[in-house]
Amino acid sequence: MKTKNNMTLIGMFLLLSACSLDTTSEPDVEPVTTPVINTPAILSGDLDKSVQFDDTTDVTGTVIITDPDTAEDRVDSQVSLATTYGVFSIQNDGSWVYTLTTSNADVMALDGTSDTLTDMISVKSADGVTAQINITITGKAPDPVAATTKVLKITDTDSSDSGELRHKLANPLAAGKITARFLKEEVLTDGGSAKEAYIALWGSSTSTNNALVDLRIGNGTFQIRNASTSVTQTFTLEEWVDVEMTWDATDTTAAPLVTVKINGVDSGLGTFSSFSNDLSSLASGVEKLVFKLSDNGSTVNGAVYYDDIKVYSDTAGTALEWSEDFEGFDSGYDLSVTYDDSATNEAFVAEVSTGLVDTNAPSNVLRITDTDSSDSGELRHKLANPLATGTITARFLKEEVLTDGGSAKEAYIALWGSSTSTNNALVDLRIGNGTFQIRNASTSVTQTFTLEEWVNVEMTWDATDTTAAPLVTVKINGVDSGLGTFSSFSNDLSSIASGVEKLVFKLSDNGSTVNGAVYYDDIKVYSDTAATALEWSEDFEGFASGYDLSVTYNDSATNEAFVAVK
């Protein structure tokens, strides 16, 4: 017999069993997370620096870390890391310092700015991106080399004769000009008496008092022999002085007319009649030149130097008759062997400093090549402000530049306005393999040049008259191009209305590759045609050899323009 309690227990058991077999209940759900995506850092900033081999000053820089990820805009720090040629440290913020080990044997062996080493240092960002810092170590630039020149040196240590060089012209010159320069030391006898030097022009007589003109050069003052009027010009001992004298003896019924200039300034006598005591000896004009020191009865301490002597057969100085610069002789050469007039005595060749820096001494220059068939080699620079007037001076050296097929290619120095078209340039000097052209000009440049020799270029412009084409001049090695002052040949005068805005130094063109290079140096831009107000200059001495100038001159057109030692 089933009881009520038993029935209750059975029902509960069935209910529990049913619950334990229920498979429709919801499972536990795991939370969903978004995956983190790393953005690689970008490292930039001071990744290239240079230092001279003997420089103990710390080289510093900063690596810029660009990384949007949280707390990853940093680099791994390094402290006093021994590198190949120095010691390097970097902080998390990217600031770094490098100290060159100047005692390193390889560093000490560097010779000249073209001799370099590179210390390569790896740095790493927080997320593992690496970059390389390159420290270029250069040898010391050579000390400036004083330019020298060969000159005539005259002394007088012979008590029976003066020091002298005498030269007889091939033919008497009835009219003409002589230019020369001299440098005189203080010249004294042992007793302290001052003695003169002389530049004299003689006719047929060899007497000093019969000279057509005799310039007496004291220890700072001048006199014209036999003249009662003094020369107003003075000079400084041991400095070079330019002298110019002209004569005209074509009127045989009167004394020849003479002018004397010192450093381009009239002597104070104007045009004067010769003070010669024997006019008949001057009937044919000048026959002999005399460069002299002291006299026949003295010996002196000190010397006089003469150089760059030129004689012309006209008073304008256009027809060169004879010249002597003494460069064809060895230093110490006895000039009485060549100038064998019996009066030539104690006249020797000496090599002296010009007081200038030798422009042929090695220096940093711009080197442009063209190995890219889709672009030319070029350095382009935009001036801070357009210049309505101005002067540019520069020098270039061009190797023979040829394509593989043997076609010659030009280099260029161009001045642009707002347009970047070559045909719109204010002036574009095209530099061939020895010749020049002005772009768009129908008249040829008369000057030529020698490959692999430095050539000086000067160009001026005046665009102040906006109703007309700018006026331009071009000189090569100080000589006019043959075009004189000309109107710009630009095809777009409106683009040069404000004057010059950009400078262009270029080699070849966009469609060629070439063998050979062009070099430029000592670029100066003035804001006036007289070249007195310097606006901008570049001599490339502030860069290491091999430096890519597109980094500094970052016009998009700058290409294959590097610093070289030349």
From TrEMBL:
Name of the protein: Cadherin domain-containing protein
InterPro entries per the UniProt record, alphabetical: Ig-like_fold (IPR013783), VCBS_dom (IPR010221)
Organism: Catenovulum maritimum
Protein's UniProt keywords contain Signal: yes
Domain of life, source organism: Bacteria
Keyword Mitochondrion in record: no
Keywords in alphabetical order: Signal
Annotated signal sequence range: 1-20
